[in-house]
Specification:
- Helices cover 51% and strands 0% of the residues.
- It contains five helices and no strands.
- The radius of gyration is 19 Å and the shape is elongated.
- The N and C termini lie far apart (79 Å).
Length: 106
C-alpha cells in the first residue's frame, strides 16, 4: 500500500501577497468550510504563535479550531480574518426582486 503525507498549503506561500490572493479567491467562492480551512492555512503560514499574539487567541485553540473537525467559533473566524485585513459580515443573497401582492380595491 502506498503511504502518503498530507499536503499542507501553508508551507508554499512565499509572501503576504500570495496569502492575500489565496484568501481573496477562496472568499469569492463562498464555501464556509473552505473559508475556514483557508484562514487556518493562512494563519499557519504566518505562524500560529504570531497569529495567536496578534489575535489574543490561544495558540493550541487556534490549531484545533482550524483542523478538519475543528468548527471554529464566529469570533475566532473574525479575529483571524481581521489579521489578514478582512472581516466576517452577513449580506443578503442576491435574488430577483420579490413580487408585491396586488392591492385590493377599496
Amino acid at each position: 500500500m502506498l503511504k502518503t503525507n498530507g499536503w499542507d498549503g501553508a508551507k508554499y506561500f512565499k509572501n503576504e501577497a500570495e496569502i492575500e490572493a489565496y484568501l481573496k479567491c477562496v472568499i469569492e467562492d463562498g464555501d464556509p468550510e473552505l473559508i475556514a480551512m483557508a484562514l487556518g492555512n493562512a494563519a499557519r503560514a504566518k505562524g500560529m504563535l504570531a497569529a495567536s499574539k496578534k489575535t489574543g487567541l490561544n495558540r493550541s485553540g487556534l490549531y484545533h479550531s482550524f483542523t478538519k473537525n475543528g468548527d471554529p467559533k464566529l469570533s475566532t473566524l473574525n479575529k483571524v480574518a481581521n489579521l489578514f485585513g478582512y472581516k466576517v459580515t452577513l449580506a443578503p443573497l442576491l435574488k430577483s426582486p420579490a413580487r408585491r401582492p396586488a392591492r385590493r380595491a377599496a
